[in-house]
Write a structure and sequence with these properties.
It comes from Drosophila erecta (Fruit fly). By secondary structure, this protein is an alpha+beta fold. The protein contains eleven helices and nine strands. The protein is 44% helix and 14% strand. Helix 1 packs across helix 9 and helix 8 packs antiparallel against helix 9.
Length: 335
């Protein structure tokens, strides 16, 4: 699902367009790689059950896509926390990258290296106010280029229309623990939203879950237009480190147990390698411009007299399907 900036009609103009980004773990993982950050990736979460979070831990932050409504924040908006990196969103369609950067630039973990581009950007903006940081992001060509590498090819460029109250506008926000408190990082706000204290014995995921559930409950029955993803350490690195320890360090395991554990970990590594290969393949397809092929195919079908028969056949199937819907009992009529 692609996301729109919900305030596209009200944000300030910043040089350079930013494309819509699909809410997909492979896309966000490649954004991380493109920014030069290593040791992190994004995983999709299909359920809010605790077990769904447990096997991904450590989870450093969550990225939530939802149908945006202009509503009061769920907690206190803080504007006096210079130790939290927060940038206001002044760029249309940039909320995906902003949500991801909000997590990465507040993250301190031995597994994850921000890389030169993000480290330089954070250093440049560290002492600036959130609005100026947003403008700096709009001028950061390296980050914008990576973001726009997922721009979909279009045959015609239409003038953009401002969002109306009836439009379906979607928005990305981030959730993460920072110094013992849970924050929502939403670029449409004036600052980070302080949601709750996190007790010393609490898992922050248990604290954030009710807030996400409450956000989902705002939707009408049957609404599924939301998506949740987790920012995690690259599990392949963890598995490879465990293999090295089993191979080179003393272990209480017997030789047979050690061999079995190594074999299991190597299967996990293969699974992660295959997942990354699949992500690369899917992203290649996302970026490929199929329009010339489609136009040429339609042209060839037209020249050989095959286009209109195909069209008529498809039209007939559609009419038959509509008739079946009308005649089926207890079925809603097409609108």
């Amino acid at each position: 699902m692609a996301a729109e900036n919900p305030a596209a009609g009200t944000t300030e103009e910043v040089d350079g367009d930013w494309c819509l980004i699909e809410s997909d773990p492979g896309v966000f993982t490649e954004l991380i790689r493109g920014f030069g950050c290593t040791g992190a990736q994004v995983e999709e979460i299909w359920t809010l059950d605790a077990d769904a979070f447990h096997h991904l831990e450590p989870i450093h932050g969550l990225i939530f896509l939802f149908k945006w409504v202009d509503d009061k924040p769920a907690g206190r908006v803080v504007t006096d926390r210079s130790d939290i990196f927060f940038a206001r969103q002044v760029i249309s369609n940039a909320c995906a990258t902003q949500a991801l950067l909000s997590l990465l630039l507040n993250l301190r973990h031995a597994d994850i290296d921000l890389g030169q581009t993000l480290s330089d950007f954070k250093s440049l903006c560290q002492d600036l106010d959130p609005g100026t940081r947003g403008h700096c992001l709009g001028k950061e060509e390296k980050i914008r280029k990576v973001h726009n590498s997922f721009a979909r090819p279009v045959l015609f460029q239409l003038d953009p229309l401002p969002c109306s109250p009836d439009d379906f506008c979607y928005h990305f926000v981030g959730f993460m623990p920072i110094k013992g408190k849970l924050y929502e990082l939403d670029g449409m706000q004036e600052g980070p939203i302080e949601l709750a204290e996190i007790g010393q014995q609490q898992n922050w995921l248990d604290v954030v879950r009710p807030f996400i559930e409450a956000r989902m409950e705002r939707y009408s029955v049957g609404e599924i237009h939301f998506n949740l993803m987790a920012l995690v350490s690259d599990p392949q690195r963890s598995y490879e480190r465990q293999i090295q320890l089993l191979v080179h360090q003393p272990s209480p395991l017997s030789h047979a147990e050690r061999r079995l554990e190594i074999a299991t970990l190597r299967e996990f590594v293969k699974f992660e390698e295959e997942k990354k290969r699949r992500y690369r393949q899917e992203n290649t397809r996302r970026r490929h411009n199929y329009l010339p092929f489609i136009i040429e195919l339609l042209k060839q079908l037209g020249e050989t007299g095959q286009l209109m028969p195909i069209y008529e056949k498809a039209k007939q199937r559609a009419l038959q399907s509509e008739e079946r819907c009308k005649s089926a009992p207890n079925q809603p009529q097409p609108q």
